[in-house]
Amino acid sequence: LMRTAEERYFATSDGTRLFYRYWPPIGGHLSQAVVLFHRGHEHSGRLQHIVDELDLRSTAMFAWDARGHGGSVDPLTEQAKSNPATMGTLVKDVDEFVHHVSSEFGFALTDIAVLGQSVGSVLVATWVHDYAPPVRCMILASPAFSVKLYVPFARPALGLVHGVFGNFHVNSYVKPSALTHDPERIASYAADPLIRRPISANILLALYSTADRIIEDAQAIQTPTQVLISGADFVVRHRPQHQFFDRL
Questions:
Q1: Partner residues linked to 11 by β-bridges
Q2: Among 100, 103, 98, 105, which Cα is nearest to 133's?
Q3: Residue 231 pLDDT > 60, yes or no?
Q4: How far apart are CA 174 and CA 1, in angstroms?
Q5: C or N terminus of the chain, fewer CB within 10 Å?
Q6: What is the dihedral of CA 58, 33, 30, 109, to 10 degrees?
Q7: Exposure class string for 215-224: b at 16+ Cβ within 10 A, else e
Q8: What are the distances in angstroms from CA 76 to CA 41, 69, 73, 84, 142?
Q9: Is the separation of the CB atoms in 113 and 137 below 8 Å?
Q10: pTM score of the predicted model
């Protein structure tokens, strides 16, 4: 059964309008919710299959387009619909989005589960660590604690160039065949006009430093946590994911 999403917006505290999808429950009353956070480069529309395959018909489902992605991008300027993203603003956006879901739809935080993929997982883990929200649980799918750049000394080189010239953007090397074996999803990814391949050096460098901090202090997290780690991952390294889980 394919559930139909309602398209909505909410405003962050700095005035940025973020797009999100809401899949109402089928039958029953609103009592539980799952909030989904997409991979880097992607958007909430690519989570439709997760909603359908989980088949939690009595559970409300939500997914945003992160600042600078999908419907949260101004089509004229191709920039975020207000202020640009930093790691700090993205994590604050997570907090404000979940609280929007809670207040707008009447869910207690204790009845909300959060699920992130890749970069979305890092945002969720950082939010849970830094803000300690009393959510029911979090599920992290292949958290991008350490992205494979495949270029020797890429991380220090990025830091050096960033320090000299300021922020810049790099294009992702990730091909859809590195993300899934499903031929239909590979084709849809390749044809998706909302996939954004450039990533800010600010975000990429902050992703590493934030992940290092969260892994180091993972024992501070008290939220029930499930980590899903792929068997062969061409995008992110396994070891930091295991370190994170071992330190919970």
A1: 17
A2: 98
A3: yes
A4: 31
A5: N
A6: 150
A7: beebeebebe
A8: 19, 14, 9, 15, 33
A9: yes
A10: 0.91
pLDDT number for residue 78: 53
Among 123, 134, 23, 113, which Cα is nearest to 67's?
A: 123
Rg (CA), the chain: 17
Residue in this structure with the two tokens 């919970």, named with its chain if needed: 248
What SS3 string covers the chain?
Answer: CCCCCEEEEEECCCCCEEEEEEECCCCCCCCCEEEEECCCCCCHHHHHHHHHHHCCCCCEEEEECCCCCHHHECCCCCCECCCCCCHHHHHHHHHHHHHHHHHHHCCCHHHEEEEEECHHHHHHHHHHHHHCCCCCEEEEECCCCCECCCCCCHHHHHHHHHHHHCCCEEECCCCHHHCCCCHHHHHHHHHCCCCCCEEEHHHHHHHHHHHHHHHHCHHHCCCCEEEECCCCCCCECCHHHHHHHHHC
- Of 126, 71, 54, 136, which Cα lies nearest the Cα of 101? 136
Mean of pLDDT over the chain: 89
